[in-house]
Amino acid sequence: MRIKQFLILVLAAVLMVVPITVTGNDTNRPNRVVITDEAGEILLTDEHIADAFISLLPFGHDFEPVVNITFTTDGTELFAQATAANIGRMLRIYVEGELVSAATVLTIVAEGQTVISGNFTTAQAAEMARSIRGYEPIQVSEEPDNFFITLLQRIIQRILR
Asked: Cβ–Cβ contacts within 10 Å for residue 145, how many?
């Protein structure tokens, strides 16, 4: 059991530096993702998203899985305009018609990246990243220990190649 816990801690440390990118692609499905303002006007779509991946952020004595979104060059500009025009108001992110995030804009976001956080399991965050990018589903156990061990094995295999 101690080895398992050690591997999880090592993986968590690695994930602080190396994001998990879900692989695969299906670009035949239009507008899997839309970002809207409070009035429901579409400000960005999945065409403006370059990548989506999960990572773990420290949260108290644990780590919280989050979904990182990186925008294209056009998407970066549009998201900066959207956040500038909506300070103090909400932007909503819908994935395949389902609301996944609604947040009040506090400042202009011009860096080309944003994070969706919530009370997600690692599997839920991985599925959301997959949905945002239109990837084929990956097999992720709801049990975090199994997921982390499998992921650590994959990372080690890639390092040893």
From this structure: 13
Structure tokens at 86: 């909506």
What pLDDT, on a 0 to 100 scale, did the predictor assign at position 22? 39
Taking the C-alpha atoms of residue 71 and residue 46, their distance in angstroms, rounded to an integer, is: 9
Q: How far apart are CA 54 and CA 19, in angstroms?
A: 6
Predicted pLDDT of residue 61: 79
Structure tokens of 89?
């108001």
Q: For the chain, which ranges sit under pLDDT 50?
A: 1, 7, 13-29, 136-138, 140-142
Q: Could you give the number of structural domains in the chain?
A: 1
Q: Is the pTM of this model over 0.85?
A: no
Say which CATH number the domain at 86 has. 3.30.1360.200
- Three-state DSSP state, 15: helix
Range of the domain at 77: 2-160
The radius of gyration of the chain from alpha carbons, rounded to an integer in Å, stands at: 17
